[in-house]
Amino acid sequence: MFRHVVVDTPLGEAVDSGIVKTPIIGHGEKLVERPHDDAAYKYENHLTLGYKRWQSSFDEWKRTGKRPLLFVMTESTEAADQIAHRLNSDPLYKDLNDKTINLHTNLKGKLQKRGRGATAYYEFIEAEKQISAEDLEALRKLSRELDSSESPYLCIVSVLMLREGWDVRNVTTIVPLRPLTAKSKILPEQTLGRGLRRMTPPGEESVAETVTVVEHKSFLSLYEDELADEGLTLEAVDVEKVPRTTVSIFPDAENKDLVALDLEIPRLSQGIRIDSDLSDLDFEDVRKAFSNLEPLPLGEPREEEITYQGRHLITDELIEQMKIKLPLLSDPIGAISFYREELERAVKIKGTHQRLAPLLQRFIEEVLFEKSVDLYDDRVVGRLADSDVRTYIRATFVPLLRKKVTRHQERLAEEPPQSVTVWKPFQATHSETHPAQIAERTPFNLAPCNRQLEVAMTRFLDRAEDVASFAKNQGPQCLRIDALTTDGRRSLYAADFLIRCKNGNYLLAETKGRRDPDVAGKARAAAEWCKAASTSKVKWEYLYVSEDVFKQFAGDSVGELLRTCRPTLKKLLEEAGSSQLALPLGHSDTEESTRAVFEFISEDDLGSLPLRARKGIQEAVLLFDYMAKKKKVSFSPVFQPLLGPLDAAAEAILLDRLEPTLPEDSEEQAAFFTPDLTAQKKKHREFLENQASLLRRLLVHRSPIMPVGLLRFCLQYAAKDEPAPDGILSAVRERFRDERPDVAGLLGWVYDFRNTYIAHSKADLDDPDAAEDGLRRWIGAIDNLSRAMRDSQVAAL
After folding, report:
1. Integer Cα distance of 771 and 503 in angstroms
2. Which residues pair with residue 194 across a beta bridge?
3. Do the beta carbons of residue 778 and residue 627 sit within 8 Å?
4. Residues with Cβ < 8 Å from 116, sequence gap 6 or more?
5. How many other β-carbons are positioned within 10 Å of the β-carbon of residue 52?
6. DSSP states along 608-623
7. Which long-range contacts (CB under 8 A, 24 or more apart) does 86-90 make?
8. Which residues are within 8 A (CB) of 443 and not within 5 positions of it... i.e. 6 or more apart?
């Protein structure tokens, strides 16, 4: 009933929906306080790790023009002054020198203008004199402009400024140095909340953004005590191993011939416009729109009432009590205006009161209820605010109004075509389920993909014999076509790929592996756009590639794929005007891969694996199915979704077996990882020293390099008869002695396969039978390692 509604959304749901950034706890062994009176040196380890994490984030986003910010929260104004001074001056933090702003209410200093004209900016200069009220207000204004590309600051140090209004969105790294025992317990929560705001627009298909919090006791407690109730499962990783979640996509002039790979997109006028003219809307149209609904019961006159209680502010004693009658929307004319405004907002039109209000009144009086009534009847007044009345009014008028105000018009060329090689850099998600692919025939450095069907399409286009160039249609400058949804709303649709064939013609391609009720309307709009974009010299055509068709396709040209897909598109276009789609649009990626995956692993075994492993196996099997019948295709990408789960399984085994043997004393640890190897030959000694060093990285620093290879070494070394020196090598021999030999053999095979075909690409993996055999062994390795870990956990109980 209200125009502006605030919704309290659990943090877990907000993260899953892409409304806010994903928070990550970055921890590390080095996060210890140093004995020092100066906070800048006392928390040097925290600041240094936070600084390095911020540098990685800055490098990740710099091509897009976004400026990630480091936020340091201190325990006192004195600490804030000390830390800001060091960050602004110490070469150890050179990227933040003169770029750190100190924000708290007890500042001493003044604002000083730097530069002239349009390039002028204000800088805070510390001094002994207390800051003036005017300068403090100006400083707060400066803080609200930190996201701007013109801001000179990249780091914020703060104590109490978070109590004030704060809308900074570019914070990607937080270093909290204020204990949870502070008087205002909400401050740590506020700090995290400010860091969650996104740099880019929100949504389920938005770029995956993260905010890393460098571990502090106050925040660990906050996460454990508070965020679990918000439905959010937090990821805690070593701060030096926080993964990149995005990549910059840009025309790669340095490594590619952009002229040869260019694609030009016609710029056409819109094919749909909304016109507020309702002159042809009459009451018979309204009556017909209501014909499929049953009239509502009228009921009896009634008034809503609430109980009001007045209580003493201090003692909470009840002082007065009364019942207040609130007949909602008791003014019938006001109710008509309310519903008219609501309908205008829903349909995005204005100025229709003169035409729409009389129709609404007549609809309520003659059609809505079981019998005709007068608008001023007490029974009607009592019903006007009820949800069923509101729902019936919307269900009747919204589709009717959308149909009346929507105008289709011819698409005409408005401006010269745009080259994709002039697109500005943009950020795209890069993860196991949204991998960015390297491709030779795209003018961009990478092709960002959403799920494995797009990965398979990218690989196909990069090898198809008749494709000259292609690009992923993504980013703020991509081609968007106006289309109508199934409920008549105007929306913008971006197809997946732009393709230029060697004959000079273009394809606008969509890959579809999920059910989408609006797919027919999008297809019709895209086909109409292609027809309007075509000229006597260059033809555009819409290519709709369904998952089922692409799986069965075995050709090696996009022209053959186009011919294969035309029957599906034809049926789609026939369905475009229907309220129900008869065409089966395929299953979701997850449903499809779940069925196929049981050919590689049993349902019970799959269900016992960690979530990441299950998803990785489903993605790998689905991608293999897409590519199995293709010609001239490499199957190496099939194994990419399994790399992370395989390393995670190997790392878990290594930690489970070896962590209990790790000495606590630092000197004993040093000796533990430097065994006496003087009796070994030089080459073998250097090899064992390297393995001991890698095990130290894993067990002490939690930053392993290739855990699969490290586990393979442990299994092979434990099986040998040669004497093991004291320390880590002796622990390896003891802890891995009883492991199953078949697991060692399988892991060794997977390791060699990985180095040959995946990691180093020493040979092409173009044989589908060899790829299928490899996929079975990889899945078997993950299953065996996970099973060994479960057995160990059961034994420990």
Report:
1. 34
2. none
3. no
4. none
5. 14
6. TS-HHHHHHHHHHHHH
7. 86/38, 86/40, 86/41, 86/47, 87/40, 87/47, 87/155, 87/157, 90/40
8. 251, 252, 256, 258, 261, 262, 263, 420, 421, 469, 471
Distance CA 452, CA 429 (A): 14
Nearest by Cα to 724 from 654, 675, 662: 675
Question: What DSSP designation does 726 have?
Answer: T
Q: How far apart (Å, rounded) are the C-alpha atoms in residues 502 and 559? A: 10
Q: Cα–Cα–Cα angle for 731, 733, 737, nearest 5°?
A: 125
Residue 755: burial class (beta carbons within 10 Å; 0-12, 13-18, 19+): middle
Task: Output 453-456 pairs: Cβ under 8 A, ≥24 positions apart.
Answer: 453/511, 453/512, 453/513, 453/547, 453/550, 453/589, 453/622, 453/626, 454/496, 454/511, 455/623, 455/626, 455/637, 456/550, 456/623, 456/626, 456/627, 456/630, 456/637
Q: Which amino acid is at 374?
A: D
Six-digit token pair at 417? 């075509």
**CA 768 to CA 629: how far, in whole Å?**
8
Domains of the chain: 11-244 (3.40.50.300), 264-271+410-582 (3.40.1350), 277-406 (no CATH), 625-796 (no CATH)
Nearest in space to 673 (alpha carbons), one of 733, 731, 610: 731
Q: Helix 741-753 to helix 707-718 angle, to the nearest 10 degrees? A: 140
Residue pLDDT, tens place only, 584-635: 333 444 455 556 788 899 888 888 888 888 888 988 898 888 888 787 788 8
Distances (CA, A) of 236 to 16, 93, 218, 610, 701: 17, 25, 15, 16, 14
Question: How is residue 783 written in tokens?
Answer: 């299953």
Q: Which helix (H) or strand (E) holds 571?
A: helix 558-575
Closest CA to 179 of 76, 93, 81, 248: 76
CA distances from 181 to 46, 72, 83, 217, 280 (A): 19, 18, 21, 10, 68
Q: What is the pLDDT of residues 510-564, one digit of tens each?
A: 998 655 678 888 999 999 999 999 999 999 999 999 988 998 898 999 999 999 9
- Give tens-digit pLDDT for 275-318: 888 888 999 999 999 998 999 998 766 555 545 455 544 444 55
**H helix runs in 298-450, sequence order:** 332-347, 353-363, 378-383, 387-405
Residues 6+ apart with CB under 8 A from 50: 70, 72, 173, 174, 175, 214, 239
How much is the CA Rg of the chain, to the nearest whole Å?
A: 32
Distance (Å, whole) CA 360 – CA 376: 14
Residue with tokens 């309310």: 338
Q: Do residues 361 and 340 lie in contact, with contact meaning Cβ atoms separated by under 8 Å?
A: no
pLDDT score at 96: 94
Angle at 132 between CA 130 and CA 136, to 5 degrees: 105
Distance CA 188, CA 71 (A): 12
- Give the C-alpha separation, 71 to 61, whole Å: 17
Tokens 């201090």 belong to which residue? 314
CA 142 to chain centre: 30
Neighbours of 72 (CB within 10 A): 31
| Mean pLDDT of the 318-346 span | 69
Q: To the nearest 10°, the Cα dihedral for 436, 439, 441, 443?
A: 50
Residue type, 724: A
Please determine, for residue 793, whether its predicted confidence score (pLDDT) is greater than 50.
yes
* Six token digits for residue 117: 């004209």
Using CA atoms, how far apart are residues 763 and 755, in angstroms rounded to an integer? 10
